[in-house]
Design goal:
The structure is a single chain. By secondary structure, this protein is α+β, with helices and mostly antiparallel strands. Helices cover 11% and strands 28% of the residues. It is built from 1 helix and 10 strands, in the order ββββββββββα. It has a 4-stranded antiparallel beta sheet, with no helix packed on it. A 3-stranded antiparallel beta sheet has the order 1-2-8, with no helix packed on it. Strands 4-3-7 form a 3-stranded antiparallel beta sheet, with no helix packed on it. The N and C termini lie far apart (72 Å).
C-alpha cells in the first residue's frame, strides 16, 4: 500500500512511500531500494483470510524468516506452519523474492496483511515485537484452518461428513433441567 494506493511490489521504487501499519511508527516509510532475488528452497504459502480481517486478500508466498503480524504480535511465518492454512512448499523454479529496504523498521500492508520490513530495534513498538509461537496462536490458526477446510469441503459438492450430536443446556435455566425421556427399545 503506497501513498497513492496499491502497487505490485516489483513496481516499487526508491523514494516511494509505503503505509506503515503499526502504531507509534511514522504513517509512511520511504522506500530506499528494492532487490529482486532469485530464490530456491522452502517458501511458506499463507492462504487468503488466515491472518484475520480477510487478510491476506490472496494467497501470499513468503520466505520462512519473514515476520508477519497476527493478533497484534509479530511472528516468524515459518513457525506458524500448520500444514493446512499456512504450509511449506518448494519455491517454483522461477521464484523471485522481493526485498524492500525502508528508512526504518515497520510493518507494511501487503494484500491486507501486515508484514515486517527492516531490522527490528530494541525500542520496537509492542505490535512488532517478535514473539515465539505459543498454544494460543496455534489454536487460533487451527480454528481458522478448520474453517477454511470446511469452506473447501462445502465448495467441493460432496456432503460434509456426519457430525456427532451435542446437547447444550440452556444458560438461564432456573432450577434443575428436565430429564430427557427416550423410548426404550425392546430386546429380542
Amino acid at each position: 500500500m503506497t501513498s497513492r494506493g496499491d502497487r505490485h511490489a516489483a513496481r516499487l521504487g526508491p523514494g516511494m512511500m509505503l503505509l506503515a501499519a503499526t502504531p507509534g511508527i511514522a504513517p509512511y516509510q520511504r522506500v530506499l531500494g528494492i532487490r529482486q532475488i532469485p530464490y530456491r528452497g522452502p517458501i511458506i504459502r499463507v492462504l487468503a483470510g488466515v491472518l484475520g480481517n480477510m487478510a491476506p486478500r490472496e494467497d501470499l508466498l513468503m520466505l520462512p524468516d519473514q515476520g508477519v503480524v497476527f493478533q497484534r504480535c509479530a511472528y516468524r511465518v515459518g513457525d506458524l506452519v500448520d500444514g493446512i492454512a499456512i504450509r511449506q512448499e518448494e519455491a517454483p523454479s522461477n521464484f523471485t523474492a522481493i526485498d524492500i529496504l525502508l528508512e526504518g523498521y515497520a510493518g507494511i500492508l501487503v494484500q491486507g496483511a501486515t508484514l515486517e520490513m527492516g531490522m527490528p530495534i530494541a525500542s520496537s513498538s509492542e505490535h512488532l515485537r517478535r514473539l515465539p509461537v505459543d498454544n494460543a496462536i496455534t489454536t487460533q490458526i487451527a480454528l481458522v484452518s478448520a474453517q477454511i477446510a470446511l469452506e473447501a469441503d462445502a465448495g467441493s459438492g460432496e456432503p460434509p461428513p456426519p457430525q456427532p450430536l451435542a446437547f447444550v443446556a440452556p444458560k438461564a435455566a432456573a432450577g434443575p433441567l428436565p430429564s430427557l425421556k427416550l423410548p426404550l427399545q425392546k430386546q429380542q
